[in-house]
Structures
1.
Amino acid sequence: MEKTLQGSVDLSRYEHQPQYSSRSWKNRMWYFVNWAVFNTTFPFPSGLKCRLLRFFGAKIGTGVVLKPKINIKFPWQLEIGDHVWIGEEVWIDNLVRVRIGSNSCLSQGALLLCGNHDYKSPRFDLTAKPITLAEGVWIGAKSVVCPGVTAASHAVLAVGSVATSDLDAYFVYQGNPARKVRERIIRP
């Protein structure tokens, strides 16, 4: 039985929210700095990158390691604790607040995705929810953390997995969608 269409999407009605607009001087300036210093293969020192993030409003702890080819949407929506490692080609698409706790690691190609679209809306409205990664969290290579997810203390999202809901403390999650597969026991 074929389902009848109840409406259609009209992207001409889509409205960009002002805080996401590329029209402001701050957004344009950040776009250039992000492209020239962060999202490049040239290995600029982490200290320089941290100072630039702070200049643009990010809250950054000490001992943060920022590898090449990182893409950060809005640094003024970013909080990073102490001794955090962010690997190559990580994309922090932080339309709203992203908090990364101390001693956490985002491996190569990880994606923190705060935004989505309402597929039921004819305007395809943008929605955004914050992401929180507590202390000691490890987001594996090529993994995706979806809008609104909180990863509790020392949770692990295994390589190539997709977190669509919260991750419990001291557990390893794997798959798409990510499921709890084992306890994370850290040797003394």
Note: The chain is about 15% helix and 25% strand.
2.
Amino acid sequence: MPSPGTLVDNFTRESLAIRLGQRLTWDDVLAVLEHLQADRGTPQSIRVENGPEFISKSLD
């Protein structure tokens, strides 16, 4: 079963991105974040779950 990756603006409850795949990697997450940053600017904060794609310190 594919694992979903969803990025939601908690203030507006708008779904900004949804990705499906057998395995979402850090590269997948980074690509989505870079695309959204180019379109919408840099967010004040990011809240993440402790999924395996966030083991990397690249998010810091």
Note: The helical segments are 26-40.
3.
Amino acid sequence: MIGKISGRVDYKALDHVLVDVRGVGYLVYCSDRTLAVLPGPGEAVALYTDMLVREDLLQLFGFTTLEEKEWYRLLLSVQGVGAKAALAILSALGPDGVGRAIALGDWNAVKAAKGVGPKTAQRVVNELKDKAPTVMAMGAQPAARPDPDALIEEATPAPAPVRNSRAKADPGPKIDAAARADALSALTNLGYQPSEAMQAVAQALDETPDANTSALIRAALRRLAPKD
């Protein structure tokens, strides 16, 4: 099983990238958001990968962060969500957006993904709400980095990239992943259940996405405080 590849971008297409690793080209399917942040032809790139294995098909799917990869794997565990739908959800919301939607029970946000109906969106929110805190806490981990030893010294000229109009997806509000992960950890250490901590942090981030760790914890605690 291939878990990560590191090489040079040969070309980018509408839904995939070809990565040259020491002369071997790996075709890797990615979300629109991932394709949008990948470097241009001839430049170094690294992707965490997940392989889809069927009797008549082998496909690699690529992700810039472990958080995105784990969301992909969790989405696949939901009935009715295949690889195409999982990438569509990640394309529409991004890893942070998926976490917020599940934490807030916002299945309408999930339904906004291309090809995802209301029943499937509701299943995503309901089935993943207890698993989401673990993945959201991974947001502080660094993105995949190219391995210099895996790159050929002289990159061969690459063809011009295919214009990808879909790749210009709105990245949404900028979230401090480390602050979110630290706030989740602090709240669970205080004795709150992961699911309720996740919901409180998501609500706080929804209002102030640029909040630091201390501000997030205070805002989340206000939401967790017993109501009179």
Note: The CA atoms of residues 80 and 120 lie 6 Å apart.
